[in-house]
Predict the 3D structure of the following.
Amino acid sequence: MNVESYVQCQVAVSLMPRLNCNVCVPLVERCGGVEGFFRESGEGLEAACREAGVSAGAFDRRRALEEAKAEVEQMGRRGIRVCDVTGGEYPALLRECGDAPMVLYYIGELRMGKEERLLAIVGTRRASARCQERVGSVVEALRGMGHRPVVVSGLAYGIDAAAHRASLREGLRTVAVLGHGLHIVYPAAHRQLAERIVGEGGALVSEYPCTVAVHPGNFLRRNRIVAGMCQATLVAESAVKGGAMATARIALSYNRDVMAFPGRPEDVYSAGCNRLIKENVAALVEDGVDVARVLGYPERREAPRQGVLAFAEEEEEEEGAAAVVAELRKSGDVHADELARATGLDAGRLAVLLLQLELEGKVAALPGQKYALK
């Protein structure tokens, strides 16, 4: 085989759709890696395929390598990179899914930290303004609690775009998974949004090379990547049928957490969310606190400084009351104005302390605004 580079081999793998993780990982391992798969002799590949339980005739390696050359050229011009399941950039959770693609193309920064949590937010393209604001409120609340999830969605109109924009407003990384090659942005109206996603530390991701024709079915297939990348999926708004509902059920099949916003029964685009909740597919969530809990973030306790301030105020009250009692003990009946001068307390605070001491039975109020110990 005429192998020119490792990248060429990665691209060639993506041009053979039968090679998903379930099939490819054990097969590639038997051949010594992605490049080894293309350098392996015909007899060696047949033996490896028999062990893996697949037919060697399904893979036209020579043709895939040849076609990959055009893709590698496009990638170089457009700043597109590629990773396979053995690489550190490949999303760790997606690697666990048997039907995940062997190879991903991406622009931007795809590598995730070990502690980063990924949250998919999906929903209808015909999203209501109310629900788009709700998505923004959840992302804002998560950031306000000190959490920094990576929000994953599909760059579509409606909920997808709202999720990406909310993340950018809050300074969070966001990833857009596309259903076509990265040489274009669809919808075209979101080109600027896509540029911001990349420019602010996120990524555009696809399993499809630029040389593969755009097909409507690809947009449904990309939903498994959205669900597979993430610890949890939030369905913000959806009719009973739609891509968001498919994403939710795929996430459930991967044993991932699914959440949904409840909606009014009469709203067509809340019916899907309500059904997911009724069927126990999704947990009902209403705000950022609920979402943070499902994502497994630690609960935020009161800041210690608040306790210190409360303690300091209580201590000051005790000191003021002690000063009033000491002055009354020394001077006997004392006018309120004289008490204020003697203790250094302002009139308002002194009045509160005198009332408190009176209620406690320690001080008696006398005619003429005078006070004395009981």
Remarks:
- Residues 301-312 have pLDDT under 50 and may be disordered.
- The radius of gyration is 32 Å.
- The domain at 118-295 is CATH 3.40.50.450 (Rossmann fold).
- DSSP finds 17 helices and twelve strands in the chain.
